[in-house]
Amino acid sequence: MSTAFLALVAQDIKKRFGLELSDIAIVFNNKRPITYLKKHLANEYGHAIWSPQFFTIQEFLGRATDDEQASPLTQFFYLYQLHNELLREEGREPETLEEFYPIAEIILSDFGQLDYDLVNVDHIYMELYDIAKIDLEFQHLTPEQQEFIRKFWQAFSMQGHTGLQERFLRLWKRLPKLYRAFKQKLNDNRQTNYPTVYRKLAEGILDAASLTAPFKKVLFVGFNALSAAEVKLFKQWQEEDKALFYFDVDAYYLEDNQQEAGLFIRQNIFHHGLHNALGDTPNIIGSRKDDIHVYAATGKVSQTKLLYDVLQKHEQEGKTSAVLLADETLLVPLLQSLPDIKVNITTGFPLTQSPIYGILDLWMNVHERISHQKKTKVAYQDIETFLNNPLTKVNPTEKTKNLNFIAERQLLEVALDDISIKTSVLPNFFRPLASSKEVIPTLTHMVELLLQSLSLDQHIKQIDATLLIETQKVLNQLHLGFEKIPDLSILFQIGLIRKAIAPIASAIEGDPLEGLQIMGLLESRCLNFDNIYILGANEGILPKTSGTPTFIPNNLRRAYGLPILENQDALSAYLFYRHLQYSSEIHIFYNSVVDESSSGEESRFLKQLEFESNFTFVKKQQQQPVLFPPKEGELMIPKKGKVWQSMRKKYIDGKAKISATALTTYLHSPLQFFLKHVAEIKEPPRIAQEFEMNLLGTIIHNVMEVIYKPFKGVEDFISTQILFEKIKDIDSLILLQIAKEYAMEIKEVRELNSLQRILHKIAYEYIKMYLEYDIKHFQSFRIIELENDEDYEISIPIQVEGKEEMLKIYGIIDRVDQVVTSDGVVKTRIVDYKTGADSVSFTSIEKVFGPNTENKAMVQTMFYAYVFEQKTGIQHLEPNLYVARKMREEGTLFSGKKGTVLTEEFLVEQKSNFVQFLKRTLEELFNPEVPFRHNPEVHVYPSDPYTLFYRNAVKEEDDIQ
User: Fold this and answer.
1) Residues 750, 870: one domain?
2) Which of 861, 709, 892 is nearest to 785 (CA)?
3) Domain range enclosing 311
4) Of the chain's two ends, which shows fewer C-beta atoms within 10 Å, N or C?
5) Structure pTM?
């Protein structure tokens, strides 16, 4: 690797100035290179010396004035006040803060750029009503500049102007006045900003000579893109022999006018006449034939996972290394993927990625709803998020109580009066604000409570504390600005708060000279490392495809020499190329997946290098699937020890009952049976955001019971025509059941939320279909049993370890009736209601009466019929399944693929087969030699809470012996 740039600077300083360094000033674009240059100077001298003075460019130029630097928020509020004063002078209505805010940042940015580049504000914001006016007012411009402006204005020179164009023109006319008023406001308050300082120095209003006078020489190190103000000052100081310039540059891109990376330094040296103190420019990149490793990752975050392996392989003692984030949103996934090595992070940990922002953002979301929109309920997800955030510190008992309250009532929205959170650090989180004046004070108090809570922790996290303190500062600045403006809406204040706190970050302290350095490309200026790892090197990110928002159109920016998007590309190219001059190990990562946020292409800088340079590109494509960690073994539970003892104690000795549902659970997944019924690992309480069939089934069963209950126990057959009268009651009966399920008082359908209305509509149609089916197919009926889940249990003998044992089984009877068909035949039926995707069809009895039964509903209905017949002695029950979705087409009798219907002689035969199948299954369940394992051929639904337990199930023939 060639000598690092700052090492060359240190060598030149020693050669030029010897030990006389105390009256030398060294100026950088940012602070980070200062530490590195000090290290190189120490290496060069090898003994104690008087240190030169170090500055950033803003610190150096800022010494020209004693005025206070106005914060961005202070400048924003000044601008708002002054803009409304100008509107009033024009006889126009003042704008609200909400209306003005979107354009304020753009105006301030444009003002700053005009100052940095010394543009005449009156000229650039001149009225542009037609091309003739432009020609007259812009005679001082060259023909080329005038042509740029004409092209821009063609869009505005058509017949008439739209309202938006008219408003745009008025704004342009007003901006010179606003600019002068804004500068006067700063001056009156003894305040300034850096653009103002730059312009005043360049125009001689502030004394530029006073900045260099205390020093023998001022050294400007590593500068690249210069503003017009900087160019004027630098040239002046060079002519006065007060300044030296150290440019970090390579002949590869400096001497080739087609190389955009050299654009600004070519301007600095060849156009502006600034001399490079390092002398002749070496051609390092052009002579290199080293490898550049390029990694195509299958996803944005996958880049950080690939980096882990690369770091493990390439990191060595005594080598300097840096991860450069072309895409700075990769910081958090990067931190989660690093090996256990020393790390120093310059970019800072962003507030937006911390749990602190999570709780602040949640508060703002909640109060947009309950304080701005005056809603009396919040989404259950908001409460769950609050309860689970570690910063809120809710007592576990109170947390469980609230979650159970929501789950038991299936509340998609929770009334504010029902939220009881007293143990939290933030007990008033869900209390509505009394007025818009309380937004900032309440949020500030919340930040104070979080700080107090953190201070009680034994191991306080410095990052969290810093983030909270910086947030507090921003809120205080906003509060000072808001106090002067009446009637700000809660919604707007929250929007501005979000924008104001989003840039907050906390530095993660480390040693800038040791370990892996993590930074953005811009922060890497002047710095060199043995090994570099660039993440996010995608086209569209390196370089970016969007510029800074501005009201000054591109052609006009060109005419006045203001920065344009091509300038941004040139700067990105330079920041990238300069690392190729020094680093011996170069590893570049990009996301190869095409999606809405990624082009899937590597940066064009890489393609250019591959085509033009002598580097060897070693390309690697990440393959899928990537298994992290390796696949685990199948989970099987042997029926031994405590498992077997528990089963015997519960079912054989304790006579616990086995239901039809438990039986079908075992048929589909013996492992799930163990989890639910032996280990008793219950499903966690949850809220169904989608429509849930369980609730629909409960409501339908209850309403059907209410409709048929008056007829239970009546000896005589009743005409089905009476059911016509019941149809009109369905609507109100469903409403009562929904109110009961949700523990609410509901009198009318319009009081239901959207999901409840869907539930009401589907239940109505299903129940109406059931009644109409009975009316159509039967003359009369009598009810023998109805919705009984208590009285039907029997004992069944099975063989367990060579001994007969008695097991209890029980059935839930939806309905047993006798009906007279249209042709006068009397049938005794057992009826089961189903609201899901069940069916009465099956392909073969073998597939029904076997593991992973193909018709769970048929097994359950046969189970209920068997228990009822054994318990009551009533025989010849015909199983019927009322499947609302299919009963019109398929009927209610189970039927096989070959046309066999489960009735009469075929039914008698299959009842006998079922009993044998039932005993065989129960004996397998209680066979100690057969472990609990999942059947891999069973379809697993996404909502199944036990998925992780049986995700690695394999077929028996695939088992390794």
Assistant:
1) yes
2) 709
3) 285-342+511-621
4) C
5) 0.69
